[in-house]
Amino acid sequence: MPPRTKFSKEAIIDAAFDIAKTEGIDSITVRKVADQLGSSIAPIYVNFTEVDELKQAVLEKIHDIAQQMLMSQYHSDPFLNIGIASIKFAREYSVLFKDLIMNSKRYLNHVQPSRTNIFEQMQDSTSLNGFSNEELAGILFKMQVFQLGLSVMDVNGMLPEDFNEEKIIGMLESTGKDVIIAAQISKKKIE
């Protein structure tokens, strides 16, 4: 009898992640993960006491991916970089994006990057100098609303056919400038 193949915890999480990114988080089952690995269910239960524990590990992996994308340098402006990372996540992981945002936001808090990291990036942007944390929060919220709508339209095929990633980023950049200019004008009126 040949020796049993051992599966690491990481291999099991990766198999579950592959299911989540093509079928959604709620599609993760012990049987599907075992089938993905080409094994019995035993290795999964050796590493995880229940499927919800495995799902939590997948959510941590998704968080790490989102955080890594957020910290990647897509553009020289750190504020625009935040939006680009979000757009790229939605495009690269469209099933997960739909699952997290549109179908079941109960998982969203588990995967979102830290607001502290986002504010640190915003504070590094020269275009946002002079804004208080409260003002930055308002600017971020407006851009999140726009970026989320843009991402939803993108992953659902609702944008014009010629709207490639470059055009999406251009629209994100011009809208960000508009929001910042409006915030600067509003700030001057208040002062």
From TrEMBL:
It comes from the Bacteria. InterPro entries: Homeodomain-like_sf, HTH_TetR. The keyword DNA-binding applies. PROSITE patterns: HTH_TETR_2. Keywords: DNA-binding. Coiled coil: none annotated. SUPFAM superfamilies: Homeodomain-like (SSF46689). Residues 6-66 form the HTH tetR-type domain. Residues 29-48 bind DNA. This is TetR/AcrR family transcriptional regulator.
